Amino acid sequence: MAAFTLGTGDRDVHPERLLADWKDFVQLVGVHFHWHVTARLDVPSAGKLAASEFTQRERQCLACTARGKTIANIAVLVQIAPRIVVFHLENARCKIGAASIAQCVAEALRRGLLS
Questions:
Q1: Helix, strand, or coil (residue 1)
Q2: How far apart are CA 26 and CA 32, in angstroms?
Q3: What topology is assigned to 51-110 in CATH?
């Protein structure tokens, strides 16, 4: 946790003038601080992933999983090997930052990434 302050003990400070003089600097520090904390915590942005960032196969495998299909069922439906289904599901899981495939499906549905 970190913070910074613009507090001062000077009683003759005019906040409006300080803000006008230092606005660009304070904004730059805020943007840099936000970027640094986000990168350090490795927090995925909720709006960062668009549906187009999933490949067609990833969306297809996730949609089948959302309908309760097993990996073996999906492999037959999509006509690919079961290990390839797992590959696509894991790629989608990593892209969305989920801990499990179930969480990935739930998050993709919540974000409207699956139709």
A1: coil
A2: 10
A3: Arc Repressor Mutant, subunit A (1.10.10)
* Tokens, residue 90: 């894991």
Contact in structure between 49 and 29 (CB atoms under 8 Å): no
Q: Rounded to an integer, what distance in angstroms lies between the CA atom of residue 8 and that of residue 29?
A: 18
**Encoding tokens for residue 100?**
């499990």
Give residue 18's pLDDT band: very low, low, confident or very high (50, 70, 90). confident
Rounded CA separation 32/87 (Å): 36
Q: Write the CA distances from 85 to 58, 75, 99, 107, integer angstroms.
A: 8, 6, 17, 19
- Using left for φ > 0, alpha for ψ between -120 and 50, and beta otherwise, residue 97 falls in left
- Read off the pTM: 0.57
The Cα–Cα gap between 50 and 39 comes to 20
